[in-house]
Amino acid sequence: MPARKLVVLSSFIILPALYLFFWRVEVFAHSRGAESLKWYALLLLVTIIGLEQLYGYRNAVPQKFVLTRDLIANVVNKYITGAIAALIVLPLLHYVPEHFLGRKTFLASPAELGPFWLQVVLIVLGVSFFRYWMHRWQHKNEFLWSLHSYHHRVTDLRALNTEVSNPLDFALRNVLVFLILGVVGFDPLAIVVTVPATNVSAQISHWGADIKAGFLNYIFVTPEVHRWHHSAKVPEGHKYSVNYGVEFAFWDILFGTYHLPQENGVAVQPERLGHPSGLGDEPNYLKLLLAPFGLYPTGSGRAAEPAE
After folding, report:
1. DSSP code of 235?
2. Is residue 298 assigned to a domain?
3. What would the pLDDT profile of 288-304 be if each residue is shown by its tens digit?
4. Neighbouring residues of 234: CB distance < 8 A, sequence distance ≥ 6
5. 305 pLDDT exceeds 50?
6. How many domains does the chain have?
7. What is the DSSP string of 95-121?
8. Whole-model pTM?
9. Beta strands of the chain (E only): which ranges?
10. Which of 6, 74, 211, 243 is most deeply packed, by most CB within 10 A?
11. Shortest CA distance to 223 belongs to which of 1, 2, 19?
12. Is the pLDDT of residue 306 over 60?
């Protein structure tokens, strides 16, 4: 079989294979602690960058001019944001139930949440539901949009720009819910098994490659689905954006925000990615960090309201 045909054929099976492989790897990393998780994050990033070269995306846009920003954002949000958020938020999560509910934790023991299988289901549904609505709110609320909008100035989805977010924006969507899980009292093993299931899809959704997800587009937030969330033109009938799910697509289907047009059974992709108000990509990480708080001369806030 010619090499090109083999690449095209494998583009239909590589995504489910990656989901399964990295879920198993991340479960192992969680069970081994923080040091293993750091290596896992690096392994996933390097793997996807390599596969992006193999499965070249036809509408790819050069990203070299933002490479420094992307590298800084990866280091900050992969290895620093979570630790700082935990340092600030965990004392509050312990303080409130202890002083207002009369308990040191929300629940006395993991057993109160039901059997192991039920806790797995609750974690998967709870995390994905929280992240869907938080992400949707980040597009609707003016201040949260001033934080989040920098992520939408990327002009191409790549593994390296997955973490391009203001740290506060990133923490609200990707860290807070996991801190709550730890305090609520879920079985640690249930968290170890299920948290990777919510993480892997979110990380692969920025894969800048021409892969065909097929039916997985209706279950996970695949690159084909997520590109429409980053479309420079908001699809007709939607106010802010579409496809708000971070890891699973079924919340968008349920709440009417799913968008993935088809032509002859093949998913159509947006012609151009970028900020819905036409703002260019922002290579200055310091501006991404400070402008939403009015600490950088220009560029904070929402430039224009998307059309209804």
Report:
1. P
2. no
3. 999 999 998 754 333 33
4. 240, 241, 242, 276, 306, 307
5. no
6. 1
7. HHHHHHSS-SSSSS-GGGG--HHHHHH
8. 0.85
9. 262-263, 266-267
10. 243
11. 19
12. no
The candidate with the shortest Cα–Cα distance to 107, out of 117, 93, 120, 121, is 93
Q: Does 238 map to a domain? A: yes
Q: Give residue for tokens 């003016």.
A: 142
Q: Which amino acid is at 128?
A: S
Question: By three-state DSSP, how is residue 18 classified?
Answer: helix
Element (H, E) at 269: none
Selection from 248, 241, 59, 60 nearest residue 152 by Cα:
241
Q: Vertex 45, ends 39 and 47: CA angle to 5°?
A: 100
3-class secondary structure, 284: coil
Burial class (CB in 10 A: 0-12, 13-18, 19+), 110: middle
Is 79 in contact with 291 (CB distance < 8 Å)? no
Distances (CA, A) of 180 to 119, 231, 249, 286: 14, 32, 23, 30
Q: Which domain holds residue 276?
A: 3-293
**Which residues is 220 bridged to in the sheet?**
248
Contacts 24+ apart (CB under 8 A), 123-126: 123/181, 123/186, 123/190, 123/191, 123/194, 123/195, 123/198, 124/194, 124/197, 124/198, 126/177, 126/181
- Mean of the pLDDT values across residues 31-45? 69
Instruction: Check if the beta carbon of residue 78 is closer than 8 Å to that of residue 163.
Output: yes
- 308 within some domain: no
For range 72-101, the mean pLDDT: 83
Does residue 301 form part of some domain?
A: no
